[in-house]
């Protein structure tokens, strides 16, 4: 089953949503978005924990 994530699910005022066939593929999309849209060269541990908790089956 596909995985999905939305920035708003971790409290960001951002309309980004992503879907992928695997969590690994989804995390790659999230990391690219975080770098481009939010200026995050890396995702800190606390934010990563929030992101992983917010990933849902799609």
Textual characterization of the structure:
Helices cover 45% and strands 17% of the residues. It has 58 residues and is an alpha+beta fold. The longest helix is centred in the middle third of the chain and has 16 residues, at 23-38. The protein starts with a strand and ends with a strand. The mean pLDDT is 97.
Which blocks of ≥5 consecutive residues have pLDDT under 50? none
Structural class: alpha+beta
Order of helices and strands: EEHHE
* Strands side by side in the biggest sheet: 2-1-3
The count of strands amounts to 3
Q: Structurally, how many domains make up the residues?
A: 1
Radius of gyration: 10 Å
Mean pLDDT: 97
Approximate strand percentage:
15-25%
Distance between the termini: 7 Å
């Amino acid at each position: 089953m596909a995985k999905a994530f939305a920035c708003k699910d971790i409290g960001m005022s951002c309309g980004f949503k992503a879907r992928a066939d695997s969590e690994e593929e989804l995390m790659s999309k999230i990391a690219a978005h975080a770098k481009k849209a939010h200026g995050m060269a890396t995702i800190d541990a606390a934010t990563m924990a929030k992101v992983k908790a917010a990933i849902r089956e799609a």
